[in-house]
Each structure stands twice: as structure tokens, then as C-alpha cells.
Amino acid sequence: MDSPVRLGLRANWVQFSLLVVVNAFVGAMVGMERAILPLLAEQEFGLASRVATLSFVASFGLTKALANLLAGRLGDQIGRRRVLLAGWLVGLPVPWLLMWAPSWDWVVVANVLLGLNQGLAWSMTVIMKIDLVGPRQRGLAMGLNEAAGYLAVSLAALATGYVAAAYALRPQPFYLGVGFSLAGLGLSLLFVRETRHHAALEAQQHADSQEPTPSFREVFLRTSWRDRRLFAVCQAGLVNNLNDGMAWGLFPLFFAALGYSLTQIGWLAALYPAVWGLGQLITGALSDRLGRRPLIVGGMVLQGVSIGGMLLSPAFAGQAAAMVGLGVGTAMVYPTLLAVIGDVAHPAWRSTSVGVYRLWRDGGYVIGALLAGVLADVLSISWAIGTIAGLTLLSGGIAAATLEETRPPDECASASGVPEASAR
């Protein structure tokens, strides 16, 4: 007999913990590329153009952005679990393509599939956790989710860097990806349960439970532009991933130009997402107490300052300090932006709204890859880094001007008739 549907982190800790582990494997799929793929482009495929090198980031970002939008809508229509499983199925060929790609075009194709995997699977782990916890502790839930994903990015980047230093850039580092994809699919298939009924329960108890569900077009426009709060998080998310796209594609080349070894590059490539991941264990819960706005504005400013700080000193310690600052700033922003969507969007159309936000956010990978690649080719990598730092600071200013506080007051959950662990 099925257990009654209940909302809250404590009431659903088993499924919540399982989804945290699943998202760690999702993140590890990206992490296996971060330290070595730009070097692979230069050393094995002979790519001199930065735009050509960053084409794998652009293909990944474009596909992931569109997959996010599709995943959000499908999650509302056919259920979260089915979309999660589809994400893992399309991710299975990725490490094999990277191991044996005969040309760079095959690497780009692999990253199209990786973008689909990330857009479908990561989106569902986010939405399913929001479903499970209900209106309280959203910041904590998103912090745990994103921490698991980006700690796995860091550990996978570090591991593949060591494997590449010990053996070669391929195929050995991508053996790890085979294990990640099989483990993620197996856990999702055997143990993950559907959570759409949790969202339905919250919608029934919501203050606007009788409000008709808006059309896809209305949700898209409301999330992208019409609601100032949602517009603020969409533009901040886009710029956040714009600078992450540059970090993914250009930072290893920048560090190599400074004379760092492959092991040192692996450590720096791992340090930024490690701080990002660990920091979210604190910042997600902190946004439930201090509010969303100060963490988002402060985090974007800290990111901009840290990226610009990379240009001040070629010393390894200086670059490591910049990576720590960038990780802290990103940790302040990443789970908090998702918590704002959970605060503002109605449960009946929340999955679609998350998909729209993630469309804009991961569209930043495309813009960042193209912009950074062109600037690096025409001017230099340093010019590309400085320009992205300025855009990140500008985004923090836009967030300060447009974002109103959305954190529910402490009494919000009880006032809306949704206790943390209630059944109807």
C-alpha cells in the first residue's frame, strides 16, 4: 500500500537523499571534461582558433538550454521520473564518443548529447526536490542539490586530470564517465519515484489553488520579462553561466600559457567547482534566513571581482585565490536563483517556469563561449577574461535594481495551510 503523500525534507528524506546522489552522477558527467577537453582540442586535434575550441561549450550550452525548456514542460505533462530516465539514456554514449572520436566534430556531437543529458536529468533532480520539500526550506534543498552536482564536477575534473597526467588525454580519463552514466541510470531506474503528486498536493493547498493554469506562452513571458523578480534571476543566471562557459573553455588554456603543469591545471579546474559545491551547503540554507536578494547581488559582484583578479598576478597562489573567490560568489548565487523561482512560481506551472529560467541560464554557455572565443582570437585571452568580469559586475547591478525580496516569512507556510509534513 502506498504511503500518504507528505511534504517536507524530513518526511521525504530517503527519496531526497537518493536524488542528491543521482545529481552527483549528473554533475560528474560534466566534470570529466572540464580539465582536459580544451587541451585535447589543441594537442590532439590541432585547433588554433579559440572559437573553434569553444565550439564544444557552445553546442553543449545550446542543447542544454533547449532541453531545460523541454524538460520543464514535459515534467508537468508526463511526469518527472520519465524525463529523468530519458536524460540518462541519451547520456550513455557520451564517454564512448569522447574516447574514440576521430575528429573534433565527433566531440561536438558528444557534447550535444551531454547537453541533453544535463538538461533533462539535472532539471528533474531540481524540480523533484522542490516538489518534495514543499514551501519551506527551498534554499536548503537547492543548496544540497547543487552542492552534490558541483562537488561531483570538481572531483571528476580532479580525477580525470590525474588520470590524464598518468596515462594520456584519452581514452583512460573517460572510462570514469562510463561508470558515472551506468550508475546514474541504474539508481534512477530502480529506486527513484515520481514526485508530481507532491506538487499536486501543494497546489491544492496553495492560496491560489483555484487559479487557472496559464499557457506555456504566458509562463514563458512571465518568467522571462513580465515579472521583475523572475527577470532578475533569468539575467543573473544567464551571466553566471556566461562566465562559467568562459571558465570551462578558456581557463585551462590561460593556465597553460602561464606555464602550469597538467596536474596544476587539474587542481585549479577542480578548485572553483569544489568551493562552489561546498559553499552551497551553507548559502542555500542562508538564503532561507537572510533572504535571496543580498546573496544574489553580492554573489554576482564577487564573481566579477574574482574573474578580474585573475589578470593581476601570474602566481599560482593568486590564481587559486581567484578560483576560490569565483567559487564562493557562484555558490551564493546558484541555489538562491532557483529558490526564487520556487518562491514565485505557482506549483501548477513551476516545472515549466524552472525550465524557462534554465533555458536563459544555460543559454549563457553559448553566449559566453562565442563572446570569449571571438575576443580571445581578435584581442587576447586576457581581454576576454576582463570583458566577462565587467559583464558580471553589470549583472549584479541589474539584479540590485530589479530584484525584490521573495523569501517567504517564517509564518508563510502555516499561513498558507501547508505545514512541512501534512497529508490530505
From TrEMBL:
<feature type="transmembrane region" description="Helical">
    <location>
        <begin position="365"/>
        <end position="385"/>
    </location>
</feature>
<dbReference type="InterPro" id="IPR036259">
    <property type="entry name" value="MFS_trans_sf"/>
</dbReference>
<keyword id="KW-0812">Transmembrane</keyword>
<dbReference type="InterPro" id="IPR011701">
    <property type="entry name" value="MFS"/>
</dbReference>
<keyword id="KW-1003">Cell membrane</keyword>
<feature type="transmembrane region" description="Helical">
    <location>
        <begin position="106"/>
        <end position="127"/>
    </location>
</feature>
<dbReference type="Pfam" id="PF07690">
    <property type="entry name" value="MFS_1"/>
</dbReference>
<dbReference type="InterPro" id="IPR020846">
    <property type="entry name" value="MFS_dom"/>
</dbReference>
<feature type="transmembrane region" description="Helical">
    <location>
        <begin position="83"/>
        <end position="100"/>
    </location>
</feature>
<feature type="transmembrane region" description="Helical">
    <location>
        <begin position="295"/>
        <end position="317"/>
    </location>
</feature>
<dbReference type="GO" id="GO:0022857">
    <property type="term" value="F:transmembrane transporter activity"/>
</dbReference>
<keyword id="KW-1133">Transmembrane helix</keyword>
<feature type="transmembrane region" description="Helical">
    <location>
        <begin position="148"/>
        <end position="168"/>
    </location>
</feature>
<feature type="transmembrane region" description="Helical">
    <location>
        <begin position="51"/>
        <end position="71"/>
    </location>
</feature>
<feature type="transmembrane region" description="Helical">
    <location>
        <begin position="174"/>
        <end position="192"/>
    </location>
</feature>
<dbReference type="InterPro" id="IPR050171">
    <property type="entry name" value="MFS_Transporters"/>
</dbReference>
<dbReference type="InterPro" id="IPR005829">
    <property type="entry name" value="Sugar_transporter_CS"/>
</dbReference>
<feature type="transmembrane region" description="Helical">
    <location>
        <begin position="12"/>
        <end position="31"/>
    </location>
</feature>
<keyword id="KW-0813">Transport</keyword>
<keyword id="KW-0472">Membrane</keyword>
<dbReference type="GO" id="GO:0005886">
    <property type="term" value="C:plasma membrane"/>
</dbReference>
<protein>
    <submittedName>
        <fullName>Predicted arabinose efflux permease, MFS family</fullName>
    </submittedName>
</protein>
<feature type="domain" description="Major facilitator superfamily (MFS) profile">
    <location>
        <begin position="12"/>
        <end position="407"/>
    </location>
</feature>
<feature type="transmembrane region" description="Helical">
    <location>
        <begin position="324"/>
        <end position="345"/>
    </location>
</feature>
